[in-house]
Amino acid sequence: HGANRAMAVFSLANGRAAEAEPYLKRLASDSAQPGPRFALADYYIGFGRTSDAVALLEPMAAASQTAVAAKERLGRAYAAAGDLPKAHAMADDALRENPKDTPSQLLKSRLLLADGRRDDALAQARAAVAGDPSSVPARFVLGKLYAARGDVAGAEAEFREVLKHNPTATAAQVELSLLQLSASTPAAAVRTAEDAVRSQPTSLDAR
């Protein structure tokens, strides 16, 4: 297991994601734990392989121990494929089983935003942050939603919370820099952008 895990991590970390698949598959088939299967499902979702992700996740969605996490991933897989009704159905199922599951709350928030329901998306993201104040993804999504509605102060506060928990979060640094630029504070924007480049020198977003 250790060798397969090491090779999968090495391949993913070095921009050779296609080479990670056989190692992820071996880990998923050899382990009795759900983690490796979820990792393989995330790999499939990331590469837009919806049918592979669905085939792997559907049995896990039927098992009580893995149902919520599997349904959240099924929702993401359907959303990535453009099937928003199925994505909503999976998010709703996951939240019925665990109303406080942060990934499912964030999925629902993103889906509501995709439907143009900004206020509902914001309320869902706020609920996610209230339930898990230290969640970096929840804070980031809430920051993006505040920014989309022109609430610069609210967005900046959330991105700073992200950076408090993860000082090298490039995406938050980039978003914060753009906010500072829009607020006519170019010197602060440049400093934040430079921090982003130092955090991730190869990031195209930071540059």
Assembly type of the chains comes to single chain
The amount of beta strand, in percent, is under 5%
> What portion of residues is helical?
over 70%
Element pattern in H and E: HHHHHHHHHHHH
Rg on CA atoms, Å = 19 Å
What layout of secondary structure does this protein have?
Elements: H1 2-13, H2 21-30, H3 35-46, H4 50-61, H5 67-80, H6 84-97, H7 102-114, H8 118-131, H9 136-148, H10 152-165, H11 170-182, H12 186-199
Helix pairs in contact: 1-2, 2-3, 3-4, 3-5, 4-5, 5-6, 5-7, 6-7, 7-8, 8-9, 9-10, 10-11, 11-12
Tell me about this structure.
With about 210 residues, the protein is mainly α. It has 12 helices and no strands. The longest helix has 14 residues, at about 65-80. Residues about 200-205 have low confidence and may be disordered. About 35% of the residues are buried.
List keywords for this structure.
mainly alpha, single chain, 12 helices, 207 residues, 0% strand, globular
Give a short overview.
This protein has 207 residues and is mainly alpha-helical.
